[in-house]
Amino acid sequence: VATGAALWANGRARPATPGLGAEWRPTAADIAAAVGSGATGRFSDTRHDRFASLFKQRYRDRGLAVGLRFLSDRRLKVMCAAMMPRWDMAHVALKAHEETRALFGRPYDVDIYETYISAMQRKVAELRADGADGAVTVRFDDRFAAATR
Predict the structure, then answer these.
(1) Fewest beta carbons within 10 Å, which of 11, 55, 84, 88?
(2) Integer Cα distance of 30 and 135 in angstroms
(3) Which residue has the higher pLDDT, 119 or 41?
(4) Highest-confidence range of 8-22, 42-56, 122-136, by mean pLDDT?
(5) Do 7 and 14 contact (CB within 8 A), yes or no?
(6) What is the Cβ-side half-sphere exposure of residue 31, based on CA atoms within 13 angstroms?
């Protein structure tokens, strides 16, 4: 079943681009080892900065313009090239959500932005956790872009 945000198989989001980040280095385990364990900390500390840098590297090493920034102790900003398919943006945001939750021990809301070389980036979607079961929803909406202008 295809949705506007992702392709679903066996209850898991699957990217439209085959192998998108699945075993690319640095893997989630590589990042966890480099960042190290410890208290959750503040969103602006060294561990969070290191996570963002390594997560971005996973995609940039393969020519995909992806960025990640911690906006607060509860919110992430995932930035993707405007030409990236929406379902791949959703997949990158889902990976960021899963990996930050596992590493820092808390769920993060994820705002998804599309970026341009010569224009302002614009918010296109939100990933939010729904309820105690950890299920997430990614919602693309043109109203987000209007609010970021």
Answers:
(1) 11
(2) 25
(3) 119
(4) 42-56
(5) yes
(6) 26
Q: Are 68 and 103 in contact (CB under 8 A)?
A: no
Structure token digits, residue 52: 């963002």
In the numeric block, which tokens belong to residue 123? 């918010």
> Tokens representing 61?
């090493």
Q: Which residues pair with 9 in a beta bridge?
A: 12
Of these ranges, 22-26, 33-37, 53-57, the one predicted with the greatest mean pLDDT is 53-57
Tokens, residue 89:
């943006």
Structure tokens at 127: 């990933």
CA distance 64 to 92: 11
Q: How far apart are the first and last CA of the chain?
A: 34
